[in-house]
Amino acid sequence: MIIDLRNIKKLIISILIPLLVGGLSGYITMDSMELYKDLIKPSFAPPGYIFGIIWPILYVLMGIASYRVWKYGDDRREVKSALKFYAIQLILNFLWPIIYFNLGLRGFALIWIILLLIFVIITTLKFYKIDKVAGILMIPYVLWLMFATVLNYYTWILNK
């Protein structure tokens, strides 16, 4: 990907936004992460450290994808719509760990993550219509959320 130097600021902002959202959410839930170790988890649950590797990668991919859409101009209706859905999914993403870890509402967190997944899929499709690469960059996030949804379901069922 060739980056126009005039837009490097947009790229940095685009990457920093999801990283900061995820970082803040992680900071808020840091003390509750110990509880995850004590949960009964399904056999396919990855070790805790994997989440610390996967999420930053996904946030960077999200940021690059949003940059690729943003550079088309936020005055275009389809770009505004795509970025609005992107912002909503970021808010949903920010709140899910608080609901799941801090509040321990795993059943409600399951509904929340399904809502998040729906918004991410819509965002991905909107991104793809504007910039195919942006849409493709969102696919790992969609796949990870599908996995996280199944994991959320099983940890809820196993720990009722």
UniProtKB/TrEMBL annotation:
Coiled coil: none annotated. InterPro entries: TspO/MBR-related_sf, TspO_MBR. It is a multi-pass membrane protein. Pfam families: TspO_MBR. Keywords: Membrane, Transmembrane, Transmembrane helix. It is found in: Membrane. The keyword Transmembrane helix applies. Its main location: membrane. Gene3D superfamilies: TspO/MBR protein. It comes from the Bacteria. Belongs to the TspO/BZRP family. This is Tryptophan-rich sensory protein.
